[in-house]
Predict the structure of Importin subunit alpha.
Amino acid sequence: MADDSASPSPSSASPLQHHREALKSSVRNTAASRRREQAIAIGKERREALIRAKRVCRAPISGSDEAEMEEGDMVVDEEKACLEAKTAHAVEELKSALSIQGKGVQKKKIEALRDLRRLLSQPEVPLVDTAIKAGAVPLLVQYLSFGSSDEQLLEAAWCLTNIAAGEPEETKSLLPALPLLIAHLGEKSSTLVAEQCAWAIGNVAGEGAELRSTLLAQGALRPLTRLMFSNKGSTARTAAWAMSNLIKGPDPKAANELITIDGVLNAIIASLEKEDEELATEVAWVVVYLSALSDRGISLIVRSSVPQLLIGRLFSSENLQLLIPVLRGLGNLIAADDYMVDSVLTVGNNIIGLIKCLKSDNRVLRKESSWALSNIAAGSFEHKKLIFASEATPVLIRLVTSAQFDIRREAAYTLGNLCVVPTGNCELPKIIVEHLVAIVDGGALPGFIHLVRSADVDTAGLGLQFLELVMRGYPNKQGPKLVEMEDGIEAMERFQFHENEQMRNMANGLVDEYFGEDYGLDE
């Protein structure tokens, strides 16, 4: 979750004042845009790393006849050409089975579907393109027709699921199938068929905004929501996963529509209350996107039991795939609503869960918990004291000096915000001297000077803001000397002729004010 705040525009006010105000506003006033833009980044990370946005269905859905009769995945050792020939033949068999009538036709249809599905499910050689070129998709659409047996519908939807898990253009080939896939999500469909269709829709939704818009226009949202109420664990998990793919944005329309559906919040709560960690993981991703994209969703969620359930998971679980969306969801809620901090997170010292993630060896958890803490630190004096007095402070100092760039920056925002109480006007923020001294003496200053040297202007500005606090507020006028000892003057002078006017004025102003002609004369 990178900081996507826009670069501040030049101001007629003092550049020092303007930029120091950003120490707070950059993590509070731009929270909404950061949440929305991070939703896009989350989707990309989820697709490429922990939880794929599209999933191949290799094993039968629990409860289907195939689950009992399948002896194992088809062992594939043929050459690619042979497998492609088999795939083309399987598609021809699909076509043939549609044209014949009489005894045994249903059995032939199922066998043809199953042969194609097995070929599409094997991992060794991708065969989706071969199947599409052979004309599989329009045939599979016919196999989805109403009145077909559940077994036939299940196999056809399974084939389409794996085609949708292919490359972008392969996924787009499913456009003719979407109306029937959505229709089979309905109450008249068996749970097994509805679940498999939800899986296919989830794969399509995971491909991109254009296909998500098509699915939403065709009415996929409400029937998917209904499936989230299912008592069958795998069905509820699949529906929640598909739902998170469908609402992930960047357009907030789907998230705003979802939160208005009767019972959706109750479904989220019920799922998070269950012991099923896989279900909780998928539902937590739904919360992530709702909290990133829907202001109404945020308002309803923070005043429900969802935050406490997420906090409970943060305390109790060691499951990385669950902790990441739980932490991101909490971070979004913290950034968006003061009620979340005042009435939920700080009650009973619930920040312990955030500190647990901050101390984790996992990079994503450290990054997300740093961001969440930075938003708490941008709040009231009581919030600042709560973090400052906790185990978080020494961990944050270590991160700002040694962590990866994005984590270092989030840690810097938190530490900087712990040191100031904004005045609410154009005056300089009031420095909390006790916090500033402890953070500087704890070894954070070299980390901030390193940020000043960053090529990223916003990050360098954050470093400059902290140097100004040190030089202005460290007791006995020792701040400039401390900055000089860490080569801070050299770091600031790199902006002497910088193209960014605000950064140039800010850095030159600091050097002139604290290291001018009178510097060192009173020693």
Summary: The longest helix spans residues 80-99. The beta strands are 420-421, 430-431.
